[in-house]
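quick one, two chains, predict together pls
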Amino acid sequence: MLIFFKKVDSFNDKIVQFFKYLASFLLVIVGLLILSDVVLRGAFNKPLIGVPEIIANLVVIIAFFQFAYAVSIESMLRSDFTIEKAGPRLKKFLDLLSCFLGLIFFVLLATSSYSSMIKSFISSEFEGHASFRFPTLPLKATIFLFSCLTAFTYLLLIVSKIFNLKK
Amino acid sequence: MLGFDFSFWIIIVLISLIALSVPVVIALGLVSFFGLYFITGNVNVPLSLLNNTAYGAIRDYIFAVIPLFVLMGELISRSGAAEDLYNLINKSLKKIPARLALATIFGNTVFGAVTGVSIASAAAFSKIAYPQMVKFNYNKTVAVGCIAGSACLGMIIPPSILMIVWGVLTEQSIGKLFIAGIIPGIILALLFAIFCFVLAYFRPDLFGQGSENQALEVNLTKRQYWGAVGVSFLIVLVLGGIWFGFFTPTEAAGIGALFALILAILKGVSFKEILDSVLETGKISAPILLILICAQMYSRLLAMGGITDALTNVFTDIGGNKVLILFIMVVVWFILGMFIDSVSIILLTVPIFAPIANKFLGFDPLSFAIIGILAIEAGLLTPPLGLCVYTVKGCVTDPEVTLGRIFYGSVPYWILLIVLAALIMMFPGLASWLPAVMTKS
């Protein structure tokens, strides 16, 4: 059982790490896109079409790519004045409570985004204006899949905390 | 509209969850979800709102400003530019009492203009300034108090993550908020400097009897000069670009981040460190972006549950005195600042306080934002959980520097933060004048 958990945890960690790096790469792309847009607009009065729309969507994708990572390293902002003063058993209980509520939240987020993603897939939904249109599916799928990944990361954290398996 | 009882229970549940160390964003998200379910009695309503919020809340060009400004600060921190600035300012303050303390304050002022997070300043200057101060016999309490206190300048001097979050929540121009922070930031730096100068005049023993001026000769290498010049240019580029309308805040952040990358490469920062900066940016900004998603759910709960109206009525019932209400808000911020981080405080309180201050009290929104940020920052220096104090403690390895010592040394600085907040309450123009000039020009 322990070996199975470690395998699953290690596989999940690899996925989380991969998307952490991909999000970092996308962030650099965002910077470069903005620079190109500003330079082309300032120097040649020809801004890149669709840059604001691409960046707006990339921000959401970058954020969702990083949520599971933020959960895995437990960097979600929290007040720790109670936990610092708590004994080991209370501390474990509070940690588990946080993870359990986090799991519920991301399951709700995944549930809420599922039907919207399917609808977007079936109807081939597009957004934007005449000169720049883009499909909504990639973003909706990102929200659903990465809510699931974050929920799963919370689940692994809960198991590791219950059985004192060091992550 | 459910009124006061509903508001009361929502706030109690939120505070309880936060006190139980549940991440603020999870507490807010779940309370908002189940609060909306309670109001509507139909689970599909909060599910649909959650879906719309996740899809639309941060899907805007403006939100790229958060990771990009964080990246800019990270790269500059790792380039050693804070040390270059410190040395350059230190060199130019020859023969002045409390020279090292003043270099720390003014170094933080300039560094604050390229980083949006106080903790980054506290960490950088703990490593740079503290060893120098100890070397020249500064009282250790004074030294660490000065470092922790002046780190707060990072949040009031633009670009500031707090201002971005505040602007997003209250739908104000982030560019104007940045400009509104300039004069209060300069005044705060001057207040800190005057405090150190006066204290050094009356108690030179606390500042090493001026030994720094006899013994300290700072020699800067060419690379250090260029580092300091590069940071100064970056500030002019980012703030000047926003001020003169060349760039939007997002464009300024994108260009600033790329310029910081070039500066970091020129300063010899390794590829691994650059990669670390980008990864650290994700670690800092992802939770903030999630907070902004939950903030929209929370705003909907506040609106549908009539919570803002209920609390406005409470304030009306206590007499409607403008100063008293503002005073209560400042006290709430200050107390919350002792326990939770600044972004979470803004998220919890601003959707409630801002409409009351702007519509009910008629207070200028920009001045109100600066007052709020000052009060929240003051909380970062107070026990039991002043974040800046803990950062300094984490970075200073001297066993004589206890948490109590840093808290004690920081007292004058948080008092000055509150004094400045009071000054802006009396003279809102200190914050609102510069943005008004910007709009006219």
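The mean pLDDT of chain B is 86.
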